[in-house]
Amino acid sequence: MEQNEKRKVVFSGIQPSGNITLGNYIGALRNFSSFPDADCLYCVVDLHTLTVRQNPAELRKRTTSLAALYVACGLDPEENIIYCQSHVPAHAELAWILNCFTYMGELNRMTQFKDKSAKHADNINAGLFTYPVLMASDILLYQTDIVPVGVDQKQHVEICRDIAQRFNGIYGDVFTIPEPYIRKASAKIMSLTEPTRKMSKSDPEDTFIALLDKPEDIRRKIKRAVTDSDGEIRYDPENKPGVSNLLTILAALKNQTPEEAAAVLSGLGYGALKEAVTDAVITEFTPIQQRYNEILADKEGLNAMLRRNAEKADYLARKTLRKVYKKVGLFQL
Ligand code: TYM
Predict the structure, then answer these.
(1) Whose alpha carbon is nearest atom 34 of ligand 1?
(2) Range 292-307 average pLDDT
């Protein structure tokens, strides 16, 4: 990189809306440490969770838990800005402005809105509809270049780009146009019990492995994972979704391709595949869980870290927000 070239900015977020899953880990969290030369912000996006009813005490607990998990997964809070979305008011403030630059028709096309409306038919609130605008604000506030996410968030990053381009088209170069960073091979981890559906933290317990699951739970869940009856270990997502999902998990954790992982196990039975996946997951998660417990034991240290980093994020976010307010014509004192 040229000496005076601007450092890249990386931003991503995870909702503290349930147990963080193996899907979140492989699709997003473990990729967060892939940008040593960038300025990285990793946000616990608590405001987004309110689009679905939350238990307040649980939400508070899961928010600090997720912040601790970020650190436990290897993100140094002195090198990365790890903070909580609601601690930086500029997210909600920019979201209002960008709401006025986003069309109903665009939001209507969002597949996550359609899925969530079907799932929560008794609570199709306006927040659920404008969710992508808040996400666009998260990203655009920091002049983000790169957004590491799983493939289910690609559409949201695309609408963010559209909103930014529209705004820039009217007011000049206000926002950096971000790019999604999606690792193709591991972008979508599937449910263990219904391997044609995405593994999701809002689904029932036995469909996912949680980052904080005990080894015996991990073993039991993988043992029960749905496979098929032809008995051959082969990567073929269309015809063998269960086996292919297990191979994807194994390959991601061993930094192989799914085909390489299949070749190592060729000729063996599904029992051996499940054993290998179980070992890989437990080996990966055990040290993270140990660090997590240490971090959580020091509540004050964790809170102080979150406060410090929210101040850093706030400073950066305000810079963009001031520019936006000025451009749209809001009177500033
Ligand atoms: P969330 O909380 O649903 O998921 C967090 C991250 O995990 C990825 N992911 C998966 N990847 C692979 N396989 C899966 N089964 C799987 N399930 C989830 C998601 O793609 C995501 O990267 N809207 C976002 C949160 C958000 C955000 C942002 C992300 C809010 N603002 C700004 C990036 C930038 C969400 O609900 O993610």
Answers:
(1) 12
(2) 98
- Closest Cα to atom 24 of ligand 1: 14
- Positive or negative, the Cα torsion across 43, 47, 49, 51? negative
249 lines ligand 1 (CB under 6 A): no
CATH of domain 2-181+298-328: 3.40.50.620
* pLDDT at 65 (0 to 100): 97
| CATH of 205-292 given 3.40.190.10, 1.10.240.10, 3.40.50.1110, 3.40.1000.10 | 1.10.240.10
Report whether residue 28 contacts ligand 1, using a CB cutoff of 6 Å.
yes
Q: Tell how far the Cα of 265 is from the centroid of ligand 1, in angstroms.
A: 31
pLDDT value at position 261? 96
Q: Is 240 in the pocket of ligand 1 (CB under 6 A)?
A: no
Task: Count Cα neighbours of 52 within 13 Å in the Cβ-side half-sphere.
Answer: 16
Evaluate: CB of 199 within 6 angstroms of ligand 1.
Answer: yes
In 3-state terms, what secondary structure has residue 141? coil
* For residue 1, pLDDT beyond 90: no
Closest ligand 1 atom to Cα of 187: 12
DSSP class of residue 279 equals: H
- Give residue 306's pLDDT: 98
Mean pLDDT over 81-108 rounds to 98
Is the whole model's pTM more than 0.90, yes or no? yes
Number of H helices, E strands in the chain: 13, 5
